[in-house]
Amino acid sequence: MSTPPEVLAHIDAVQAALETDPELTVYVGGAPSAADGWSPPAQYAVLYPEPGRSLTESLADRRTDFEAVFQVTCVGASVERCLWVADRVRKALTPPLVVAGRLAWRARDEGGPPVQRDDDTNPPSWFVPVQYRIKSLPA
Hints:
This protein is an alpha+beta fold. It has helices spanning 7-18, 79-92; strands spanning 26-28, 43-48, 53-56, 63-76, 102-104, 108-111, 116-118, 125-138. The protein has a single domain (7-138), classed as 2-Layer Sandwich (STM4215-like), CATH 3.30.2000. It contains 2 helices and 8 strands. Strands 1, 2, 3, 4, 5, 6, 7 and 8 form an 8-stranded mixed beta sheet that branches. The radius of gyration is 17 Å and the shape is elongated.
């Protein structure tokens, strides 16, 4: 029986890739709450992971391949700053991910909707969610 790939190792690799940019502030699963005394930086990215899925590598039903889609929501104090974050995210995810014991493909940019204004923040902010697809195989 084969061991299925670990989801968290892949999400950690995505987060690590994003955090290689010292100008990019990254949160996972949501930004902290203003109710907790947090005041947002001028721009930041929020990684929203999914559990992905384990795929069979052959008819023997060995579930060793991995595929997942995740979202990075890019937030800025203006449309330009929001798109600046999206550019930084795209650059950070261009090289293949580094996942121990795995061969990872480059993240595939799946795009997202147009930039939107968030009037629930004070002052208003702009955001755009961008989705990426990742895949890996055993090394």
